[in-house]
Specification:
- With 381 residues, the chain is mainly alpha-helical.
- The chain contains 16 helices and eight strands.
- The chain has helices at residues 34-49, 66-76, 81-94, 104-116, 122-141, 164-170, 187-197, 212-225, 229-233, 264-276, 298-312, 320-323, 333-345, 350-357, 362-368, 373-377, and strands at 3-7, 12-17, 27-31, 199-200, 207-208, 240-241, 246-249, 258-261.
- α3 (81-94) crosses α5 (122-141), α7 runs antiparallel to α8 and α8 (212-225) crosses α13 (333-345).
- It is globular.
């Protein structure tokens, strides 16, 4: 409760509010009217009881460097995992950069360095600039820095593309690679045949696929649902709703929740798999698949995703795709295949397909939606 005291010399009421752990120092409030002061103090204390310090009484320390800003941003906002990763790659080199340095000249020089020294792809450059833009947006809104010209938001179209001078200084002109690899005739069946065989040829000794039923289901589910690899291998049983023909994704790459409808093929595959599903002894989580142990740290998931990818695509020791003779096929290409099938085999609208696949923009979705020329030709007169 606030401590109240009447000051005879001024005829005012003084109220003192203390709250260790929330307020760095006591609040001293003065009111002419006692009832008004009590009402105001009650409002403040009600917020403090919930762990909220009213904005007018916050003593926000000013961020001085990029590292300070990122720390505040990640602690008080909700950046996507993609943005966290992008910002994390910047801190070792640029973390000590003072926020006052972020102007047009600095941003232009930074982009030049990413091209000419680091030789990054345009897509990677846009990813890093986008993360910085969203981080500084938040910093400006919170009063942590001032950027009247906002150099991350005023870049010209095509800023990430390599110019003639960039190419001359870098020795290479990186371009965005929009993968359009799809399953060719017979490849789907060849992959299933390798998985069902359970053995991959290796130089020293053959490699036995440990979980054949799970691997088969993961592959089919990728082609039928357009879910990402990590979204699938981290599924738990309570996310799979067979009675509703959906899979509920709690947290995706883009940070959004979404429901993925299941095709008749996906439904049948999951039902067959659940009859023989086996998890490692002592599993900490009721996972759909046996590979994931419930850990959600970014490092663990990166390592896990890399290992799962290598099971299917491994150029050094043949993976499932290499054993099946599927040249240049990567696991993520199955998401592209699934998205194209949604366009080819259904009457779903673009907006409905975006809701299923989780793509953020129509531009991004259309990158995956390049239909086979033969399918388009069948629609011609």
């Amino acid at each position: 409760m606030a401590h109240e005291k009447f000051i005879p010399s001024t005829g005012n009421w003084q109220f003192t509010i203390k709250r260790a752990g929330l307020l760095p120092k006591p609040l001293y409030l003065t009111f002419d009217d006692r009832d008004a002061g009590l009402a105001h103090c009650q409002r403040i204390e009600a917020l403090l009881d919930k762990g909220i310090v009213p904005s007018e009484y916050q003593t926000q320390a000013k961020a001085k460097s990029l590292a300070d800003l990122v720390r505040e941003y990640e602690g008080n906002a909700h950046p996507s995992q993609k943005d966290k990763s992008a910002m994390g790659t910047l801190l070792p080199r640029w973390g000590k950069t003072p926020l006052t340095a972020f102007n047009v000249r600095w941003v232009d020089a930074w982009i030049d360095e990413m091209k000419r020294a680091d030789k990054l792809s345009p897509d990677t450059i846009r990813s890093k600039v986008g993360a910085m833009a969203r981080c500084t947006d938040w910093g400006v809104r919170k009063g942590l820095l001032v950027m009247p010209d906002h150099p991350f938001r005023t870049l010209p179209d095509g800023y990430s593309q390599y110019t003639v001078q960039d190419k001359a200084l870098a020795g290479v002109a990186r371009e965005d690679i929009e993968r359009d690899r799809r399953l060719e005739d017979g490849e789907y069946e060849k992959v299933l045949s390798i998985i069902d065989g359970g053995v991959l040829p290796r130089k020293q000794r053959p490699y036995s696929i440990e979980y054949i039923a799970a691997t088969r289901t993961l592959y089919i589910l990728a082609v039928e649902s357009a879910m990402r690899l990590q979204e699938m291998y981290t599924l738990t049983m309570d996310q799979v709703k067979l009675n509703k023909r959906t899979v509920f994704l709690e947290k995706t790459k883009n940070g959004d929740k979404r429901q993925v409808p299941l095709s008749s093929v996906a439904m049948a595959t999951l039902k067959d798999y659940l009859k023989v599903r086996v998890l490692p002894e002592g599993s900490k989580v009721d996972a759909l698949f046996p590979w994931w142990d419930g850990t959600m740290t970014p490092l663990y998931l990166r390592v896990m995703s890399a290992e799962m990818s290598k099971l299917f695509c491994n150029t050094r020791s043949p993976g499932i795709f290499q054993a099946a003779g599927c040249k240049d096929l990567k696991f993520h290409d199955l998401r592209h295949e699934a998205t194209c099938r949604l366009f080819e085999r259904t009457t779903l609208s673009d907006a409905e397909i975006m809701k299923i696949t989780g793509h953020k923009s129509m531009k991004m979705l259309l990158r995956y939606a390049n239909l086979r020329g033969s399918s388009l030709a069948q629609k011609m007169w």
